[in-house]
Design a protein that fits this description.
Layout (H helix, E strand, L loop, with lengths): L2 H14 L6 H8 L3 H13 L4 E4 L2 E4 L6 E8 L5 H10 L3 E9 L3 E9 L2 H13 L12 E8 L2 H14 L4
Antiparallel strand pairs: 1-2, 3-6, 4-5, 4-6
Helix pairs in contact: 1-3, 2-3, 4-5, 4-6
Length: 168
């Protein structure tokens, strides 16, 4: 299989999957290294394919129209689960986390968390990798881009974060 065919198969696998597809799984299926897959996905993105990275793998960007809003929050690392559960329980997807770095400017980490399962997997992987959250760079202050099917879902999430004292 040549490079072009492999990239087409990768794109097809991501677009046809109902759940995130990991680079490790793709590398096994394609018989190449994980790094080759990462490079192929970068090339697919450069060609204009809307592929999102999540903690569990690659997903095709949703095609349905959604409402999005950016919110500012501040909380400790210990409150991450509470924050994320509150957002997904309201029907939101947490698309990303954004922090302002004094040297690098805005740093964005893709999340695409839309369920308690996604929250649990994100926290498990963070613990397993001993990863520090981006919000640690800003003493807990960070932004999230939320998406939902309606303004009401985002409003409900914002109200919950206000009650918890997390929303800035």
């Amino acid at each position: 299989m040549d490079n072009h065919d492999r990239r087409n198969k990768i794109l097809e696998a991501i677009q046809n999957s109902d759940s995130p597809v990991s680079a490790s799984l793709l590398s096994k299926e394609m018989g190449v290294s994980r790094q080759i897959i990462v490079g192929d996905v970068a090339l697919l993105r450069a060609e204009g394919n809307d592929i999102l990275s999540t903690p569990r793998g690659y997903v095709a960007a949703p095609k349905e129209k959604t409402v999005t809003r950016r919110i500012a929050v501040n909380h400790s690392a210990e409150e991450t689960q509470l924050e994320l559960y509150s957002l997904v329980d309201a029907g939101c997807t947490v698309e990303d986390v954004i922090v302002e770095h004094p040297i690098y400017g805005q740093l964005i980490g893709g999340l695409r968390i839309s369920s308690r399962y996604d929250v649990d997997e994100f926290l498990r992987k963070s613990k397993e990798e001993n990863a520090t959250p981006l919000s640690a760079l800003t003493e807990g202050i960070h932004l999230h881009t939320l998406s939902a099917n309606s303004e009401e879902q985002i409003d409900r999430a914002i109200e919950k974060l206000k009650e918890l004292g997390i929303l800035l």
